[in-house]
Amino acid sequence: MVFFFNAVSRVILEMMRQVIRGLSVALAAWCGLGHAVTGPNVIVEYHNTLLDHYFLAILPNEIGTIDGGQAGPGWVRTGETFLTEDYGLWTAGPQALRFYGSYDIGPNSHFYTNIPAEYQMLRQIEAETPPGVRKWHYETAGFPAGLVGPTGCAVPQVYKVPVYRLYNDGMARGIDVNHRYTKRQEVVAEMVAKGWVLEGPVFCVIQ
């Protein structure tokens, strides 16, 4: 029986490593394109049916890598998308900043925020946490996104649709941490019914 569970654990670990390696390929492609892309920025949501993780893909090369199966097994489109500002205007306003967990020990997930205090807290934790301990690592600016104000989107003339962040409560449930981002209240209700925790609106998009 012990041998059986150890064998299963090795299979699951190898599957997660394949997914991580695949996403690394996608991220390398994404970083290679940089700011050269122009035109509206469509962000595509994916769900990994093996890990029950959600992921936002940003640039066309990144999306193509995942759609082509090069990001590891299990990734499928959910049908959810966001529209943000032209990449040519990326440096002109606030951005959703992208973090990733520790490569070997996790969390095997991405995290987005454009809340200044939250960003600074995560960078401080990253700097103070020793190697070998799970933490979030800052990757790069993810995509243009408006700030959330006390009564809604702070710049509703451009960024008028709030995006809500949900947490799978992985720490308490003993599973890998993951977050989902959605602009639709129906999705919020669906995820809360599954035990996910609503963390509130964290940034705004065009639509």
Question: What can be said about this structure in brief?
Answer:
By secondary structure, the protein is of the alpha+beta class. It contains 5 helices and 11 strands, in the order H-E-E-H-E-E-E-H-E-E-E-E-H-E-H-E. The strands form 4 sheets. It has a 3-stranded antiparallel beta sheet, with helices on one face.
Report on this model:
- The protein is an alpha+beta fold.
- The protein has one domain.
- Helices cover 32% and strands 35% of the residues.
- It has five helices and eleven strands, in the order αββαβββαββββαβαβ.
- The chain has helices at residues 2-33, 60-67, 116-128, 170-173, 185-193; strands at residues 41-48, 53-57, 75-84, 95-102, 106-113, 136-144, 148-149, 152-153, 161-167, 179-182, 197-205.
- The strands form four sheets. The protein has a three-stranded antiparallel sheet, covered by helices on one side.
- Strand 1 and strand 2 (53-57) form a beta hairpin.
- Helix 1 (2-33) packs antiparallel against helix 2 (60-67).
- The longest helix is centred in the N-terminal third of the chain and has 32 residues, at 2-33.
- The chain is globular.
- The N and C termini lie far apart (52 Å).
- The model is unreliable at 1-38 (pLDDT under 50).
Shape estimate: globular
Number of domains: 1
Please tell me the overall pLDDT: 78
The H/E string reads HEEHEEEHEEEEHEHE
Strand fraction band?
A: 25-35%
- Report the strand count: 11
Structural class computed from helices and strand pairing: alpha+beta
Number of helices: 5
The major sheet is characterized as: 3 strands, antiparallel
Write down the Rg.
17 Å
Fraction in helix? 25-40%
Distance between the termini: 52 Å
Across the major sheet, the strand order is: 2-1-3
Oligomer: single chain
Detail the poorly predicted runs. 1-38
